[in-house]
Amino acid sequence: MKLNYKITGMALGMILLISGCSKNFLEVPLQGQQPSTQFWVSEDDATKAVNAIYANLRSWTEVAFAPIAIESLGSDDTETGSDPSDGSVPFMNSYNNFTVTSTQGQLSDFWNGRYQTINLCNQVLDNIPAIKMDGNIKARYLLEAKFVRAYAYFRLVRAFGSVPLRLHIPANASEYNFPQNSKAEVWAAIEQDLTDAAAGLPVSYSGIDIGRATRGAALSLHAKVAMYQSKWDEVKTYTDQAIGLGIYALFPDYEKLFRVPNENNSESVFEIQADLIAGNSDASNSQYSQVQGVRSVTGGGWGFNVPTENLSGAYEAGDPRRDATIIFRGETTPEGDAIPNSVPNPMYNQKSYVPFGMYVSGYNEGCQQNIRVIRYADVLLMNAEANNELGNTPDALAALEKVRERARGGDDTLLPEVTTTDKAALRNAIWHERRVEFAMEFDRYFDVIRQGRGAEVFGSLGWKAGKNEVWPIPQGEIDLSAGVLIQNPGY
Predict the structure, then answer these.
(1) Is the Cα torsion angle 171, 174, 180, 184 positive or negative in sign?
(2) Domains located in the chain, CATH noted
């Protein structure tokens, strides 16, 4: 079940839970807390603090129940799954059928989890400038923190709309109770962080630094932020720049793209790093795969967030991505795991799947699995959508075709090339491609909402315009603020 380990609120000393360098700078040996008066002194302190940001990205509130509820279960691609006997099913169902109320706990977990990440970033940004250390490393650390802060605020503004904008550690008690900023103000702060990050972050890393935020990650996230605001000129600019770096390529095998041996491959723009660290189960703490794994099999998982028949039927005939995205009851996976006919759900998420033979007793199932946040396929499809909206039809078709060509897997009889020059038809083709390319990757729900199709696509599930574009602000946060925070309409 949920691990106790997490980095909370303003506890500076908790930063020191993160240090060392095993896989990609993210081993987390447990240590005693170091008093804050002895911290923020050396380059080693700065490194520990930045590493804490990355390690926190794989914690429970970042990758498990709360993100599933907030970012996935509302869509037509997913449903709760698991088993009716599991006590978590009823409250997870409330996100799937839009009956959730403002007191449901996953809302608070998602809200607090993002602000914990923002707090860690703000500590770095407020304290590292005064440390005497290598200037190039200092500058890079500050930009890495800005990238992650932008990522956290991106997830917050999508989920809740207007949220408090905290860009510094509060200086005194009066600064803790912030009102909400407008969405425009939050978007502007995100864009400024990403502009700064893209201007100074390296294009790539080597060795133990692979997995840190890069220029391409900042450009690609900035493109996504612009896409959510329909700033198509900017989407094209940032995706063109990311493509122009010349370091990304679509991984040739779509199914193997998501397997552990192929983490941080040519298609990876940004991944949350995870690992099974021998002798340290506390550090091997990612539960991303565990909560979604095939239920009732050793090495599987809890079986939440499962594909729907609607998703299964959305693929074109013969599209290999269907079988690479969905584990079907009774099948044998490409890695050789036989899925019994007795498992509770007919389908499971194959993208989060880790072969059962990699399970080690005493560790979370699938804790080795990195979480793919931004893939090059997303850069290409954002570029296609921007070019279509701007009237650059040939460029839109070319970018779309690259993604479909990879999906064919070398079989030219599959997935005919899209050739329409009609803007509306091409827009729909790109939206469809986004659905099947990124299915089960926590993208579909907010993608449909930013397209203005929430009622059309999710209406049969209970989604209502004027309300469900965002989730309710956690009631506990409103109570703590003594009414400074305002509830979203309809809740």
Answers:
(1) negative
(2) 1-201+463-491 (1.25.40.390), 288-358 (no CATH)
